Every structure is written in C-alpha cells, then in structure tokens.
From TrEMBL:
<protein>
    <submittedName>
        <fullName>ABC transporter ATP-binding protein/permease</fullName>
    </submittedName>
</protein>
<feature type="transmembrane region" description="Helical">
    <location>
        <begin position="159"/>
        <end position="176"/>
    </location>
</feature>
<dbReference type="Pfam" id="PF00664">
    <property type="entry name" value="ABC_membrane"/>
</dbReference>
<feature type="transmembrane region" description="Helical">
    <location>
        <begin position="20"/>
        <end position="42"/>
    </location>
</feature>
<feature type="transmembrane region" description="Helical">
    <location>
        <begin position="136"/>
        <end position="153"/>
    </location>
</feature>
<feature type="transmembrane region" description="Helical">
    <location>
        <begin position="54"/>
        <end position="71"/>
    </location>
</feature>
<dbReference type="InterPro" id="IPR003439">
    <property type="entry name" value="ABC_transporter-like_ATP-bd"/>
</dbReference>
<keyword id="KW-1133">Transmembrane helix</keyword>
<feature type="transmembrane region" description="Helical">
    <location>
        <begin position="236"/>
        <end position="262"/>
    </location>
</feature>
<dbReference type="GO" id="GO:0005524">
    <property type="term" value="F:ATP binding"/>
</dbReference>
<feature type="domain" description="ABC transporter">
    <location>
        <begin position="331"/>
        <end position="565"/>
    </location>
</feature>
<keyword id="KW-0547">Nucleotide-binding</keyword>
<feature type="transmembrane region" description="Helical">
    <location>
        <begin position="274"/>
        <end position="298"/>
    </location>
</feature>
<keyword id="KW-0812">Transmembrane</keyword>
<dbReference type="InterPro" id="IPR017871">
    <property type="entry name" value="ABC_transporter-like_CS"/>
</dbReference>
<dbReference type="InterPro" id="IPR039421">
    <property type="entry name" value="Type_1_exporter"/>
</dbReference>
<feature type="domain" description="ABC transmembrane type-1">
    <location>
        <begin position="41"/>
        <end position="298"/>
    </location>
</feature>
Length: 574
C-alpha cells in the first residue's frame, strides 16, 4: 500500500512522513500508561507505594497525557491538511491525465465508473492517507513492539504468543481477500447506480414523453436495491473472519495467563515478570483487536487506489511537440483507416485534401463515418493506419491541446455550462475582453435574444443550457467559436428542425464564422452543399464520390439521389 501511495502522490507522499511519525510517537506515549500501571501494581504487591511515588507516577501520567494531546493534535491536523492538499492536486492531475487519454478510454469506462473514480475512489484514498494508514502503522508497530517485549520477559511465553498471532493473521488476511473480492463487485454496482441516475435525469423529458418514467425508474430502483444488497454483503463478509480473529486473540489471553501463572508457580519466572507479562498481554490483546478492525476497512479502501492507479497507467496520447505553428491550414488525409473496436473498420483507406480557406462538405448515410472524420481531425482518437496532416505536419506529433488551439468545433449537441451567458461565450477565449465577447455575440446573432433576457449577459443558462432553445444554444456556441477565431472550423450543421427565423440567424452567423477558414462541415442543408468547394460523399467509411455540386449532379450516382431526396424534403417543409 505504501508503494501505491508513493505512486499516486509522487513527491507529496514525503510530506506525509512527518505527521505519520508524530502519530507513531503518540503510541509510544500511550505505552507510558501501561508502564505506570506496572509500577503501581508492583509497589502494591511489594507494599512500597508511598505518597511521593504516587506523585511521581501521577506527574509522569499527566506529562504523557499532555504530550499525547499535543502530538496527536499536531499529527492529525497535519495529516488532514497535507492529505487534503495532496488529494486536491491529485484531482487536478487526474483530470489533466484523463483529458489527454485517447477517447477509447471513455468507451471502456462508463460515466458511472468515471464519476466513481473522481469522487468516491478519491475520497476513499483520502481516508486511507488521512486515517487508515497511520492507524494501521500504529497498530502494527505496537503489536511488534509488545510481542518483542514478551520475548524479553520469557522466550517460551513469547513463542506461544507468536503462535497465536501466526494463527490469527492468516484469518484476517483471508477476510481482507474476501472484502476485496466482494468490494470490487460493490464498486461495479455503485458505477451502475451512478450511470442509471445520470441516464434517468438526462432522459427524464424523453421518458415522460414516451410514458416510460415508471419503467425507467424501476431500472434505477433495481440498481439501488442491488447497491443496498452489496453494501450489506460487503459489511457482513468480513464479520466471520474478524470474529474468529478476535476469538483467537481473546483466547490467547487466558491461555497465556494460565501458562504464565504455572511458570510462576514452578519458579521459572518471578513476580515482576508475571506482572509485566499480564500488562503487556492486556495491551497486546487490545492492539490486535484494533488491528483486526482496521485491516478490513483498509482492504476495502485499498480497492480505490487500485482503480486510481489503473486510470493513471492508461497512457496519454503521445506527441513530439508541446506547441505548434502551422505554415498553412490545409488538412490532408492519406490512406487513413480507423476502428473504434478491434476488427470493425469504420474509416477505410480514406484519402482527401481540404485546402486552406476552402469548405469541404461531408455527406453520406447515417453511420457512414462523418462525425468520426471530425473527431479524427481534432485528434480525439488516433488513427490505426495512414496519416492526417495539417499544414504538412502529422497531427500525431502534436499535443492534443496544442492542436485544438487551431480548431473550433460547432456541433449539434451544444453543451453549455451552468453559468452566465457571458462566461459561456468567453470559454472560446478566456483572455477576451468584454467588448470582444459582445462583438462575437453580435456576429453570432445572439445579441438580440440576450438583450431580451432579464439579466442579459449575466443570465444563468441552467445545466447544459436547459433554459435556452436549441437554436439559441447553437448561436452561443457559434459566438464561442467566433471568439476563438481558429483557422480551422469543424461544423456539424443542425438537423433538428429549427424555426425559419432561427435557421436564418444561424446561417448568417455561420457565414461570418467560416469566412476565409478551412471548414469541414457535416452538411444537412442544400445551401451549404451547393456552396462547398468540395463535396465528399461517404459510404461505410469510404469515399464514394467527390467533387463540386454540378459535377456530382451530372454523375447521377448516390449524390444525385441524396440531393433529390433533400429537395423533396425541402418542398415538404414548405
Ligand atoms: N465512440 C464510438 N465507439 C464505437 N463505435 C462508434 C463510436 N462512435 C461512432 N461509432 C460507430 O462508427 C460508425 C460511424 O459513426 P459516425 O458517428 O461517424 O457516423 P455518421 O456518418 O456521423 O452518422 P450520423 O449521420 O448518424 O451522425 C457507426 O457505425 C457508429 O456506430
């Protein structure tokens, strides 16, 4: 475990040494009470307990008590403060790490499991470093110390004591193994609860619309029930092992006492040794009991650090350059192949060039790979074969953050933070001035609807932007992109039926956003397609046709058919 702590906390683990040492010193002071008890009992037996001796013993006890209080207070406050600071840093670095991992990681880990890692696992790990580790170190240290003292008093008694400990330890270890096994499943159930809760809350509108709230809530309720069952199972799992462990520890006391008294009877140990042994044995029994209880908790909490290490060990996307300047912003795909899951090729040997300052429209049936191409340009995923170059530079050589500085993305599903409209637009460029933010809002045709709101730019938009219409949200995301002013624009046009006003506003704002930029657009509208410098028709991750509108119409193939479909749909709308 200490190696886990070192691995996860890095340099910060050294800062925990001091409070742990302080808390261990506290246990040494704790021993003073047993020492005093020994002397008092000895004096009572020898009838030598005088008032002056009582004064000395009391003073030592009071001094030990004060020393304990001081050391304990210092140790606990330091370990809490340092632990909390270390965990805060870990949260940030874990967030950074996850940001730079290939998105495949999110495919393999559900929302529930990721939330669990970022909240519960980190909290459990915090408990390990702020409470559990020092308590365990204390009990282990004290047990060894007391056991060694037993050997000093009498080797035979020490050996018998050791036998009891050696029988008890594997039992508590087995209990720990059981807790680990069941705890893993409990964590899995916990992930499911969070995932279903997110699913329920996100989809509540949809579920209501389809009269599914009852069924979906039942799904959620079932996961709550599973969690309750697993929580009880985890708690109960350790009980038999702790009980047997404690029975062995408890039995060891009278057995050893009997043997010690017999030895005293036959004269192989003296009165002093017998007394010392009794006191040490009482102390050791208590310490071992505490160890048993702590160990179960420790094994459960330890699961958290394993999950955290696993996440840390997921490699980040590699890169050669931390920052990059491009000579130009042409995008080139050369024999690119890509699969999300092994054996399922989604993009097949794809080659095309989108020249700087031009607009490339991607069209094709659902699932043909349009969104995937966008994600590959932004390096959310790394390709399996071929190269993607921007301005002649392979994007795999560039840090994902550096690459994204040159790219603006406007997607259909706009996610807004639960913050003011102003701050949501400013996300495009955190260094932008107020005038720049308002200018971008005006260019994106947001200004008019924002001015109608009671708190204008200071209006809080609600989680995910729930208080705004789809069109308004999309315009805010366009304002963001205008503010960012990146030379490459990846744009997924809205398919959702926007009202005519909204559509017109959005079209105008997109025109301003995309002027003179390298634009890749998933096109759903005829105007966009007609205006594009190049149209790529995709099917099953392959280019089926490519060219300008007039050219493709003449070809009379898939594009011609799709275009006619769109025309018909347009007439229907009218
Ligand atoms: N994260 C993912 N993990 C696994 N498979 C995925 C993932 N995202 C997309 N796919 C699969 O890749 C294929 C291409 O999907 P993509 O979203 O690129 O298509 P699209 O042309 O944009 O479709 P649409 O027009 O419906 O948005 C689909 O079969 C889809 O199921």
């Amino acid at each position: 475990m200490l190696s886990d702590i070192k691995k996860l906390l890095g340099e910060d683990s050294k800062k925990l040494r001091k409070p742990i040492i302080l808390l261990t010193i506290d246990t040494i002071f704790h021993m003073f009470f047993y020492a005093m008890l020994y002397f008092v009992l000895l004096d009572l037996i020898n009838d030598t307990l005088s008032f002056s001796k009582i004064k000395i013993y009391s003073s030592i006890m009071i001094a030990a008590f004060i020393a304990r209080a001081l050391v304990n207070a210092k140790g606990y406050t330091e370990i809490q403060a340092r632990g909390a600071r270390a965990i805060e840093k870990m949260r940030i670095s874990l967030g950074d790490h996850i940001r730079n991992i290939n998105l495949g990681f999110f495919n393999k880990n559900s929302i529930g499991s990721l939330s669990n890692i970022m909240t519960n696992d980190l909290q459990d790990f915090e408990k390990i470093i702020t409470h559990n580790t020092s308590d365990l170190i204390k009990t282990v240290f004290l047990s060894i110390y007391l056991l060694a003292l037993t050997f000093v008093i009498d080797i035979q008694l020490g050996m018998i004591q050791l036998v009891f400990v050696l029988i008890a330890i594997p039992i508590i270890y087995m209990g720990g193994e059981r807790v680990s096994a069941i705890g893993k499943y409990k964590k899995h159930v916990m992930n499911q609860v969070i995932s279903r809760m997110v699913e329920y809350l996100n989809g509540i509108q949809e579920f209501r619309a389809h009269n599914l709230t009852g069924e979906k809530f039942e799904r959620l309720e079932n996961s709550f029930r599973d969690l309750r069952r697993e929580s009880i199972r985890t708690e109960v799992a350790i009980v038999p092992f702790v009980l047997i462990f404690q029975i062995i520890v408890d039995i060891s006391f009278p057995v050893l006492l009997l043997i010690a008294i017999t030895k005293f009877g036959v004269g192989s140990i003296g009165k002093k040794e017998l007394l010392t042994f009794i006191i040490i044995n009482i102390a050791l029994t208590n310490v071992l009991r505490a160890f048993g209880a702590q160990y179960g908790i420790f094994r459960y909490l330890k699961l958290a650090s394993q999950k955290l290490i696993q996440t840390y060990n997921t490699p980040e996307m590699s890169y050669k350059y931390e920052e990059v300047d491009f000579d130009n912003y042409s995008i080139e795909f050369k024999n690119v192949s890509f699969e999300y899951e092994k054996g399922e090729n989604i993009i097949n040997n794809l080659s095309f060039e989108a020249k700087e300052g031009t607009m490339t429209a991607l069209i094709g049936p659902s699932g043909s790979g349009k969104t995937t191409i966008m994600s590959l340009i932004a390096r959310f995923w790394d390709i399996n074969n071929g190269t993607i170059k921007i301005g002649g530079k392979d994007i795999r050589d560039i840090h994902p953050d550096a690459l994204l500085k040159h790219i603006s993305m406007v997607f259909q599903d706009v996610y807004l933070l639960n913050d003011t409209i102003y701050n949501n637009i400013k996300l495009g460029n955190l260094k932008a001035t107020e005038e720049e933010v308002i200018r971008a809002a005006k260019l994106a045709n947001c200004d008019e609807f924002i001015e109608k709101l009671e708190n204008k730019y200071e209006t809080i938009v609600g989680e995910g932007g729930s208080t705004l219409s789809g069109g308004e949200k999309q315009r805010i995301s366009i304002a963001r992109a205008i503010l960012k002013d990146a030379p490459i624009i990846l744009l997924d046009e809205a398919t959702a039926s926007l009202d005519a006003d909204n559509e017109l506003e959005i079209r105008k704002s997109i025109k301003k956003l995309t002027a003179n930029k390298t634009v890749i657009v998933i096109a759903h509208r005829l105007n966009t397609i007609k205006d594009a410098d190049q149209i790529i028709v995709l099917n099953e991750g392959r280019i089926e046709e490519r060219g300008k509108h007039n050219q493709l119409i003449k070809n009379r193939k898939r594009y011609y058919n799709m275009y006619n479909e769109m025309e018909k749909a347009k007439q229907w709308e009218i």
